[in-house]
C-alpha cells in the first residue's frame, strides 16, 4: 500500500510535533529526576559504560584506517608529519562525535527503546501510573539524561583512542617522527576545535536519546511494535545525526 | 469491617456501605466498536464486587474507566463521589494513591528484585527511613507468603508467585480500594486457591473495598459479595453469585454454565462452513 505525499507530510508533522511536546514534557521532569541520582547514575552506566568496549574498539580501528589513508595521502605532498593534525582534527570535529553517535544509536539507543517498549507491553508503565508514579519522571527522564551525559564521554574516549590508533600506524608502522606528530597536533588543535566536538556530541546525545526514549514510550505494546520502534530508533537517529552534523559543521565554519 | 471508616471526595468520613465506585449510564467505544451501551455498576465499601463476563466484554476497559486511564464518551464514573473524568493529572494521582491494582500479568518491574518491587511505591511517595521500609516490605511479603523470595528477580518467579508479589506491592501503601484484573488467569489450582483466599483475607483484615474482574465463576462465587455480569455492552445480571446461579436469563445461564450455545455466539461471524471448505477445492 503506497501512502500519498499529503498523508506522509501530515504524519511527519504529527510525529515532529509529538516529539517536540514529548521533549518539553521530559525537560520539565529533568530537575525533579535529580531527586533520585541513583537512577541517573545507573542509566549513565547502562548507556555509557556498557557501550565503552564497542566504542573503544571502533575508535581504534577508525584511527588506524585514518593513519593509513592519511599517511598515504599526505606523503604525496611530502607533509606526512602533519598526520597528527589530520587525525586529531578529523577525530575531534567529525569522526569522534558522529561515529560515536551512530554506535550509540545502535547499541544504547536500541537498548533504551526495546527496554521501554517492553516495559510498556508488560504493563509496567501503566502499573507505575496506577501507583501514582509518573513514568516520564521515573523511567524516561533518567534514561534521557543518562544518554546525554554519556555521549560526550564516549565521544571523547573514541577520539582519544582513535588518535592513539592513528599514531600507532603513522609513527610505529610508517615511521612518522613521533615528535613532529605530537607537536604539530598540539600547535594546530585549539580550544575551538575541542568545543566543536563537545557541542556536537552533546547535541547528538540529546537527539539520539530523545529518539530512543520517544520511540520506546510511544511504540505499539506488541512484540512487532517494539521491533518496529527499535528499527525506527536506529534509522531516525542515524539520519538525524548526519543531518545535524552538517548543520553544526556549517554553523561552526560560518562562525570562524 | 463495616465499622471501619473511609473518606469521601472531601476527605471526610463516610458511613459504611457507601458506594466507593459508581458507574452510571456509561457509553464507550473503541475504534467504532461499541464496548459499553449505558452500563451501571456500583462497588460498595467493605465488599468484594465481581465484574464477570465472557472475553471481550470490556471488563478490563471498565477498570480503565474507573482508574481514569480512559474517559467515557458519556455517562458518569465516580470514585468516592468525585467524577474521575473531570480530574486533573494531580487529582488523578491523588485518587490512585487510594487504590491498589493487581494486573493480569503482575506488571512487576523486571529490572528490580521482589523486595525493590514491593518497596517501589514507598520509595516513590514517602521518605521513610530504610529500616521502616524494610519492615513494611517484609510484612507485606510475609502476608502473601513470599518473605523468603525477597531477593529473587521477577524472571525467577512462577506466575502465581509473581501475582502474589504484585499483590504485596498493591497493598504496601494500605489502599482503600484494591482492584484485581483477572487474578486467576493461567494459575494452577493451588495458586488459584491461594490468591482467592488472599483476596478474601485482605478484604476482611484490612477493611478495604475490592473489585475483582474475572471470568472464573467458581472462584468468584466463593469470595464475591456482589456480582455484575456484563455482556453486549450492558449489565445483564446483578446480585450475589448464588442469585446469578439461580437466574433464568439465557445470557446468565450460558455464562454460569459454561455453555457454547446461547446468546453469546461461540463462532465469529463466517460464511457457510461446508461452502467455505468446498471453495478451497475448486
- Radius of gyration over C-alpha positions of chain A, nearest whole angstrom: 21 Å
Give the CATH superfamily of the largest domain in chain B.
P-loop containing nucleotide triphosphate hydrolases
Q: Proportion of β residues of chain B? A: 15-25%
**Number of β-strand runs of chain A:** 0
Q: What kind of sheet is the major sheet of chain B?
A: 6 strands, mixed
Tally the beta strands of chain B. 12
Helix content, binned percent of chain A: over 70%
Alpha carbon gap, first and last residue of chain A: 49 Å
Oligomer description: heterodimer
CATH uppermost class of the largest domain in chain B: Alpha Beta
Helix and strand succession of chain A? HHHHHHHHHH
Descriptive overview:
The complex is a heterodimer of chains A (256) and B (282). With 256 residues, chain A is mainly α. Chain A has one domain (35-255). Chain A contains 10 helices and no strands. Chain A has helices spanning 5-28, 30-33, 37-47, 52-76, 83-121, 124-130, 135-173, 178-188, 191-217, 223-255. Chain A is elongated. The mean pLDDT of chain A is 92. With 282 residues, chain B is an alpha/beta fold. Chain B has 10 helices and 12 strands. Chain B is globular, with a radius of gyration of 20 Å. The N and C termini of chain B lie far apart (69 Å). Classes of the chains: A mainly alpha (256), B alpha/beta (282). Chains A and B meet through helix 6 of A and helix 2 and helix 3 of B.
Amino acid at each position: 500500500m503506497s501512502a500519498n505525499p499529503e498523508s506522509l507530510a501530515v504524519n511527519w508533522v504529527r510525529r515532529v510535533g509529538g516529539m517536540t511536546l514529548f521533549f518539553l514534557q521530559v525537560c520539565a521532569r529533568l530537575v525533579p529526576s535529580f531527586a533520585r541520582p541513583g537512577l541517573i547514575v545507573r542509566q549513565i552506566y547502562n548507556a555509557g559504560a556498557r557501550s565503552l568496549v564497542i566504542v573503544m574498539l571502533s575508535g581504534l580501528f577508525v584511527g588506524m584506517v585514518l593513519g593509513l589513508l592519511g599517511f598515504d595521502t599526505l606523503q604525496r605532498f611530502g607533509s606526512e608529519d602533519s598526520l597528527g593534525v589530520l587525525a586529531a582534527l578529523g577525530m575531534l570535529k567529525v569522526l569522534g562525535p558522529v561515529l560515536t553517535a551512530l554506535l550509540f544509536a545502535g547499541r544504547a539507543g536500541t537498548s533504551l527503546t526495546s527496554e521501554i517498549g517492553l516495559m510498556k507491553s508488560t504493563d509496567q508503565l501503566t502499573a507505575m501510573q496506577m501507583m501514582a508514579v509518573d513514568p516520564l519522571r521515573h523511567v524516561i527522564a533518567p534514561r534521557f539524561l543518562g544518554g546525554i551525559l554519556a555521549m560526550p564521554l564516549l565521544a571523547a574516549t573514541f577520539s582519544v583512542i582513535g588518535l592513539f590508533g592513528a599514531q600507532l600506524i603513522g609513527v610505529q608502522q610508517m615511521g612518522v617522527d613521533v615528535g613532529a606528530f605530537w607537536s604539530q597536533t598540539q600547535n594546530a588543535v585549539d580550544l575551538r576545535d575541542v568545543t566543536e566536538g563537545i557541542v556536537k556530541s552533546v547535541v547528538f546525545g540529546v537527539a539520539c536519546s530523545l529518539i530512543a526514549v520517544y520511540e520506546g514510550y510511544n511504540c505499539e505494546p506488541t512484540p512487532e511494535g517494539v521491533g518496529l520502534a527499535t528499527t525506527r530508533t536506529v534509522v531516525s537517529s542515524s539520519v538525524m545525526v548526519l543531518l545535524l552534523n552538517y548543520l553544526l559543521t556549517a554553523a561552526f565554519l560560518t562562525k570562524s | 469491617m463495616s465499622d471501619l471508616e473511609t473518606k469521601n471526595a472531601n476527605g471526610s468520613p463516610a458511613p459504611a456501605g457507601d458506594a466507593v465506585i459508581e458507574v452510571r449510564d456509561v457509553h464507550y467505544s473503541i475504534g467504532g466498536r461499541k464496548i459499553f451501551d449505558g452500563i451501571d455498576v456500583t462497588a460498595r465499601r467493605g465488599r468484594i464486587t465481581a465484574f464477570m463476563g465472557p472475553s471481550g466484554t470490556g471488563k478490563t476497559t471498565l477498570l480503565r474507566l474507573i482508574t481514569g486511564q480512559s474517559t467515557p464518551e458519556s455517562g458518569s464514573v465516580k470514585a468516592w463521589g468525585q467524577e474521575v473524568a473531570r480530574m486533573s493529572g494531580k487529582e488523578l494521582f491523588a485518587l490512585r494513591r487510594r487504590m491498589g491494582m493487581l494486573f493480569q500479568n503482575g506488571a512487576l518491574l523486571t529490572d528490580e528484585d521482589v523486595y525493590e518491587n514491593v518497596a517501589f511505591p514507598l520509595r516513590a511517595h514517602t521518605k521513610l527511613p530504610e529500616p521502616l521500609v524494610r519492615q513494611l516490605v517484609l510484612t507485606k511479603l510475609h502476608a502473601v507468603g513470599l518473605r523468603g523470595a525477597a531477593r529473587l528477580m521477577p524472571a525467577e518467579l512462577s506466575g502465581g508467585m509473581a501475582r502474589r508479589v504484585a499483590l504485596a506491592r498493591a497493598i504496601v501503601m494500605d489502599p482503600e480500594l484494591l482492584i484485581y484484573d483477572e487474578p486467576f488467569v493461567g494459575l494452577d489450582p493451588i495458586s488459584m486457591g491461594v490468591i482467592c483466599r488472599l483476596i478474601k483475607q485482605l478484604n476482611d483484615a484490612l477493611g478495604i473495598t475490592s473489585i475483582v474482574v474475572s471470568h472464573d465463576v467458581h472462584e468468584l462465587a466463593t469470595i464475591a459479595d456482589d456480582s455484575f455480569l456484563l455482556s453486549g455492552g450492558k449489565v445483564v445480571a446483578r446480585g450475589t453469585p448464588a442469585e446469578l446461579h439461580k437466574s433464568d436469563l439465557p445470557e446468565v445461564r450460558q455464562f454460569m454454565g459454561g455453555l457454547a450455545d446461547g446468546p453469546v455466539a461461540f463462532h465469529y461471524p463466517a460464511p457457510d462452513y461446508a461452502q467455505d471448505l468446498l471453495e478451497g477445492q475448486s
